[in-house]
Amino acid sequence: MSKRLYVGCAMWTHKAWTGRVAPKNAHERLRFYAGWCNAVEGNTTFYATPTRETVQSWAGQTGEDFRFVVKLPKVITHERRFQGIDADLSQFLHVIEPLGSRVRALWIQLPGSFAPVDLPALEGVLARLPDEHRYAVEVRHPLFFTDGPEARQLEKICGATGTEWVPFDTTAFFAKPPTSDAEREAWERKPRLPRRDRALTEQPVVRYLGRDSNAETEAGWQHWVDVVAGWVREGRTPTFFLHTPDNVDAPALARRFHDEVRTRVPDLEPLPRPEEPQEPGTLF
């Protein structure tokens, strides 16, 4: 059985990708993106739950091997903080049902104000979520990154339900001051936390933020090439999401990361070959 690594970006459509990664036709952009990457962050569901018909269109544009890591709506995680969420959660689970096995995990991103004292709320919701999905939690409170009892408590809660802890590695980005408008915006918005690379499950998920410079982005991910290659050799199936401040070259960079891991793990299954959009132009 061949080994597999999922790679992707924070979105499947970007203005700068038109004519390079995807055509002008908005209804086909996910299909073209799925020729570049085999996974995507489902950030769109954080802001509003889509219609079931919209989600059916996502399934129709992607093959059965494509994976979504779908973010729970912010009304559940940020606004209500798991209190009184039954109706919203039920609606969300119904809406994403057409994705079927394409759902890699349901992603529970928590705000920086979600502290260790709030963990019982997370434990409660994880215990009653349906078993047919995998779950992944992203925390941003600094106390979870001090290698103390707070981290061990979160790991214990995750371990009880087979939930992964998603690190968002921004250390390469924050290694030096910003040099562009996009980097300055990310400097203000992105979390600045220590890097964490401990996998809790067989399907670890990593988010990595590079720089505007592709060379600096690639230099900063070398740690993850080693870690991810090691996970694959162990029989795990990781997912690696590539971010840059402007995300202009993110699909090609995600493929480059996959290529670098594949040089370490030659039996890693290759990515699909991108389909050329109607408009001319290529990345790089």
From TrEMBL:
Region annotation (Disordered) ranges: 264-284
Name the record gives this protein: Uncharacterized protein YecE (DUF72 family)
InterPro entries associated with the record: DUF72, UPF0759_sf
Gene3D superfamilies, sorted: Protein of unknown function UPF0759
Biased composition (Basic and acidic residues): 264-276
Species assigned in the record: Kineosporia succinea
Pfam families named in the record: DUF72
